[in-house]
Specification:
Elements: E1 3-10, H1 17-33, E2 38-40, H2 54-57, H3 65-77, E3 80-82, E4 86-90, E5 93-101, E6 107-112, E7 118-121, E8 125-128, E9 141-144, E10 147-151, H4 160-168, E11 173-177, H5 184-200, E12 203-207, E13 224-226, E14 232-235, E15 241-248, H6 250-258, H7 261-264
Amino acid sequence: MSTLRVALVQLKGQPTKKECIANAAAQVRLAKDKGARLIILPECFNSPYSTAEFAHHAEEIPSGVTSQALAKLAADLGIYLVGGTYPEREGTKLYNTCPVFGPKGELLCRYRKMHLFDMDIPGQCTFRESDALTAGDQLATFTIGTLNIGLGICYDKRFPELTACYRQLGCDMMIFPSAFDPYTGPLHWDLLGRSRALDNQMFVALVSPARDPTTEYVAYGYSLLCDPWGRVLCRAKESQETIITDIDLKVCEQIKRQIPILNQKRNDIYQLLTKK
């Protein structure tokens, strides 16, 4: 496999969970019709992004209604489906979780958001995920052919050490379902995506909900996919939209030969360790 067709599905929220799932399924089917093999949904695609709503919309993974619908969709279409994120319930704890389903409908992995979004920019954006959610503590990867892919969620991409850990695990792509706000989005969205791609010589996908100014939390939009040179290969706008592109997997090996920073790190002086 030298190329992979990837679809980033930027979804507008719907009034109910059932309608959110139906909207996602319709867009995924359209992306499959255009040849996409890896299809990625955005953060909190089946739930309002609200600490007051997470518990109401939470479900177990993979037995919940959203997981079952995505698993069946992946199996019906024979695709790799990154289920964006949705609130997961395990016992008394809630997580912001990204599941991945394979072409047989199997749960390949799930990633629980590790860095919770607690931020306060007065007059612009105030949010505390930790008021409702528990932080995850495990990395998660899956493979398509020879391509190793790592998972993070939104705020996680502000922590370069996390992506660097995935690089050490041999990942050549990172996926971040993300819901940035319209204040930090124009300042940091492209910059963070391109930086994580360039620093680690990998593809990086940021997949946002569509912008809806009527909601409590307004997402930025502008889903994008960067290549290992830090170039933006494709970018959505603000509304519901699916962007599709073919990524050339040979680029990763080419840049690692041409600019061999992975072999030039001074591990005698500094070192990054994964504890779990």
